[in-house]
Specification:
By secondary structure, the chain is α+β, with helices and mostly antiparallel strands. The chain has helices at residues 64-77, 108-113, 122-141, 204-207, 214-230, 243-252, 257-263, 269-279, 305-318, 358-362, 364-369, 371-409, and strands spanning 17-19, 24-34, 37-44, 49-57, 86-92, 96-101, 144-145, 154-156, 167-169, 176-177, 179-180, 185-186.
């Protein structure tokens, strides 16, 4: 909207005034900076309310901000409390584009590092784990994979807005749609895919440069939860550049009992290992009598989010953790954050704007010719999907009954 003869850095300056069609904002401070842009706190001049703006260089090739907008639009449609709302957007000509969002508090990495032992109490670990799981399921519900699940991409709300017991999911620059809009089917799995994510938390498939699905977000979630519960992961001393060594750790975790014991130090072992089975394709002798849930998830499979949540709930009950037990960053207040059970994993159709690019217009006739053949294939797919869904539901019910029986025995 406004141009500038700013130097090499096109990003906002302290006290700079940014104009949009709706309002004016004053830049207060830089909150964080990464490969895809920067986040600042700002003051809305019309009412002196604080917000955050996420900025992206106008000349960047990869438009991560566009993905943020799409994801947050989907979150708004399902009315999720775990995603920030975009309240405004604009551009400063030749410098940067930006969106204006809710201002939130510290991320979960910083909150963990604030604790005396650099790990959460078990009550806080399980409550935050459950909220993050729900947010991942909701992201999947409107058709996106996150592909960079880590503590820095989740944050608590601000105490000033009374949201400091609610966890928000952040940073959607690496997200990818796993559905084809309007066709009612999943994208075809790619034979290979470039590495995406953060080495410490990345799922095995990503580290092997294979295409990732919904189960892989759950695998990253588990690494994150184990870290803030125990204080570290077995490969915690390795750097991002040591990807091959971290990969070896994650491979060996599948069948080495000593590594599994180290992995789940100070964690609810039985429940966390059951969750590990949700993400991994392997068999092991480690507590083998407890594991009735047989992992069969592939790229296309829908994770059993309810089962994962059940494991968290069982761990809390077994350790006499109450719903009202306080969080580590607010120890004097009973917990009043959301207590939610994740959905079944069904993907919804999003409302999309009826736009067509120039290339799309040129290819319109060609697409229409193949539409009849596609409709036939889609009908076959939908029939298979209905059959598979019924089989999945029957299998989940059997698994749940088997698990409940095993837990009673244990």
């Amino acid at each position: 909207m406004q141009s500038s003869d700013e130097g090499d850095d096109p990003m906002p300056r302290d006290d700079e005034e940014l104009k949009t069609k709706k309002d004016k904002y004053k830049v207060l401070a830089l909150l964080g900076k990464g490969g895809y842009g920067a986040v600042y706190s700002v003051l809305r001049l019309s009412d002196s309310e604080k917000f955050a703006i996420k900025c992206e260089n106008a000349n960047t090739c990869r438009k991560a901000l566009y993905m943020d907008c799409n994801v947050l639009k989907g979150a708004a449609q399902i009315k999720s409390r775990h995603f920030c709302t975009v309240v405004d957007q604009a551009a400063v000509k030749d410098r940067f584009n930006f969106i204006v969002m809710k201002l939130i508090g510290k991320n979960l990495w910083d909150l963990r590092m604030d604790t005396p032992e650099c790990r959460f109490s078990l009550g806080t670990a399980l409550k935050t784990a459950a909220q993050c799981l729900v947010s991942i399921q909701q992201l999947h519900k409107f058709g996106y994979l996150h592909r960079d699940i880590k503590p820095g991409n989740f944050a608590a709300g601000r105490k000033e807005s009374n949201e400091h017991h609610t966890i928000f999911m952040l940073d959607f620059g690496l997200c990818r749609e796993f559905v084809k809009r309007g066709e009612g089917k999943l994208r075809t799995q790619r034979a290979n895919a470039p590495f995406r994510g953060t080495t410490r938390y990345a799922p095995l498939n990503s580290m092997l440069e294979l295409d990732t699905g919904r189960k892989d977000d759950i695998e990253s979630w588990l690494y994150m939860v184990v870290e803030w519960t125990s204080g570290g992961l077995p490969w915690r001393k390795l750097k991002a550049s040591d990807r091959d060594k971290v990969l070896q750790f994650k491979k060996e975790l599948r069948n080495r009992e000593d590594l599994q014991e180290d992995m789940f130090y100070s964690c609810p072992k039985k429940e966390f290992f059951r969750i590990l089975k949700v993400s991994y394709h392997f068999s092991t002798s480690f507590h083998s009598d407890y594991f009735q849930y047989t992992d069969s998830l592939d790229f296309y499979a829908t994770p059993d989010y309810g089962f994962v949540y059940y494991c968290i709930k069982h761990a809390a009950d077994a350790n006499k953790i109450k719903d009202t037990d306080p969080l580590d960053w607010d120890p004097n207040t009973p917990y009043f954050g959301p207590i939610e059970v994740p959905g079944d994993g069904a993907v919804i159709e999003l409302e999309v704007e009826n736009r067509m690019s120039a290339e799309g217009s040129i290819n319109k006739t060609r697409k229409e010719k193949g539409k009849k053949n596609e409709e036939k294939e889609n009908e076959k797919y939908r029939t298979r999907k209905r059959e598979n869904k019924k089989n999945d539901e029957d299998e989940k019910m059997k698994n749940k009954k088997d698990l409940e029986a095993a837990l009673k025995k244990s």
